[in-house]
Specification:
With 255 residues, this protein is of the alpha/beta class. It has 8 helices and 7 strands, in the order E-H-E-H-E-H-E-H-E-H-H-E-H-H-E.
């Protein structure tokens, strides 16, 4: 268990890639706090049933796990979550900025609200949680920060100007903070998933899926577990000499 006794905070950990990351870190010995919150037309929701299910799955590994409702785009919620994490786990070694949403549309049809919501949830959240978490990591002179970007943040994608902008921003933020924190023994890296089978991609029709797979050399979709294993590696001592890197887990899309 290469992460034995490490303490992790994962944003957006109740489903999809976030859930897989939480389970993989737990399997490797991590105690974990994960957030649950999704903005929608009604304002917000927290899938408490999904969170409880993840908690029960994590507990099977014999580690501590706690979930908390927190809006990733809210700085005050990030502060609340950090305080909750320090109280429940007694420290923080690993931060995974995973929370993210899509509001896809062609630019001429995209609303200002849809642009702002995606930027706030996907990009500002990374600022929020990194800023509050790094103080604790700097004092202990150790920390691992892993940001979930996207392959489209590297290559672009029509109909996703807001999402692409947010993920390209995450990549730039990763590189800037990697340089800022390196002297304190804190590494910052990003994982850029390609076409991964999750609820977020489940709304695509067969024609859209075929078009995407046509540009994937491996000719298949990835799984949340493919992403989680790379995150676990970056969180471990095996990746101590990696920082400022963007690892594309995309079946070869962005070669």
């Amino acid at each position: 268990m290469k992460l034995q006794n490490k303490k992790a905070l994962v944003t957006g950990g109740s489903r999809g890639i976030g859930r897989a990351i939480v389970l993989e870190l737990a399997k490797n010995g991590c105690d974990i706090v994960f957030t649950c919150y999704s903005p929608d037309e009604a304002g917000c929701r927290c899938d408490s049933e999904a969170s409880k299910l993840v908690e029960s799955e994590v507990e099977a590994y014999g580690v501590k796990v706690f979930s908390i409702k927190a809006d990733a785009s809210s700085f005050s919620d990030a502060e609340k979550t950090l305080n909750f994490t320090l109280e429940k786990l007694g420290g923080l070694d690993i931060l995974v900025n995973n929370a993210g949403i899509t509001k896809d549309n062609l630019l001429l049809r995209m609303t200002e609200d849809d642009f702002d919501l995606v930027i706030s949830t996907n990009l500002k959240s990374v600022f929020n949680y990194t800023k509050v978490a790094v103080k604790s990591m700097m004092s202990q002179r150790y920390g691992k920060i892993i940001n979930i970007a996207s392959v489209v943040g590297i290559i672009g994608n029509a109909g996703q100007a807001n999402y692409v902008a947010s993920k390209a921003g995450v990549i730039g933020f990763t590189k800037a903070t990697a340089k800022e924190f390196a002297s304190r023994n804190i590494t910052v890296n990003a994982v850029a998933p390609g076409f991964i089978s999750t609820n977020m991609t489940g709304s695509l029709n067969d024609k859209q899926k075929e078009a995407i797979l046509a540009v994937v050399p491996l000719k298949r979709t990835g799984t949340p577990e493919d992403i989680a294993r790379v995150v676990s590696f970056l969180a471990s001592a095996d990746a101590d000499y990696l920082t400022g890197q963007v690892i594309s887990v995309d079946g070869g899309m962005a070669m």
